[in-house]
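Morning. Coffee machine broken again, so started the prediction first thing and wrote up yesterday's gels while waiting. Chain of 340 residues, entered below exactly as on the submission form.
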Amino acid sequence: MSIVALDIGGANLKAADGLGYARSRLFALWRTPEMLAVELQSLIGEAPHCDRLAITMTGELADCYATKAIGVRSILNAVESAAAGRSIVVYLTTGEWTTLNEARETPLLAAASNWRALATYANRFASAWPALLIDVGSTTADIIPLRESGPCPTGLTDTERLVVGELVYTGVERTPVSAIVRRLPWRGETCPVASELFATSADAYLLLREIPEDAQSGETADGRPMTRSAAHARMARMICADATLFTEADAQAAASAVRDAQLTMLETAVRDVSARPRHQPQTLILSGQGEFLLRRLAARLPWRCEVLSLTKELGAEVSRCAPAHALAVLARETWPTRAS
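Came back before lunch.
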């Protein structure tokens, strides 16, 4: 059985085979949805040979689609086109597999299902329950309660999960700074920030040297490179200044304030989820591109519990594509008798 799993997001496409291969590529789905099939075909072609595809997605929320149902169906059509006759299964938020045609009939069950795959897979690393999976990616954070039997979320849809704190719409790369803080420190004062997309969370973590520079990437607020010098200029604009009026000390203070505010957002959600009856975790499982931030979060929490790192368990490249890897492993273990 040769399987590749695809995690199709609005900003990133990820592929994994569950055996150690994992790749992520930037793709702005909302800009060019008509190119999705071509991008997926290329991604599949770069992966180890496979005759089966397992699919999960979050890209249906992209605003190029009038509704999530339209988004799911459009993404599935692109998958079918790219699959070139390969057998396909789609993962649902209920933890079940379905065919392409059935997913088209129940699109909202196929929408935003990758968290369920990751939580189901990650639970095998826990040694004591209740456990809590905290995954922080480029855009969002998932906080999923776990029992020995598997995930036990309160919400299934994005909106339900936002309401109960199991989805926090904040991440370590794409979140606008103005969505994290309302004021930034500046030379003994605090300055209100501009309500503009001048800088993102990636700029804070570039300045703090938590994420590496990438001079080839222009996926930033101003389209300039993902470098510390460019991040300095972007952060300056948040208080309507520029790089000549904003020292390195100013930039470090601002970046630290963004990190602290994002930590507080995540801590509040984790405490709220864990305050439910019989949910105080005995095991924390940390995952995602923002695991460096989660280590700080774990140190803030009042409970004594085991803290596990999926990056240590899987390696950095696979951990970056953890939902796709998880889905591939689950597909290898539980491939259904019916597939498209």
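The two ends are 16 Å apart (CA to CA). Going to sketch it on the whiteboard this afternoon.
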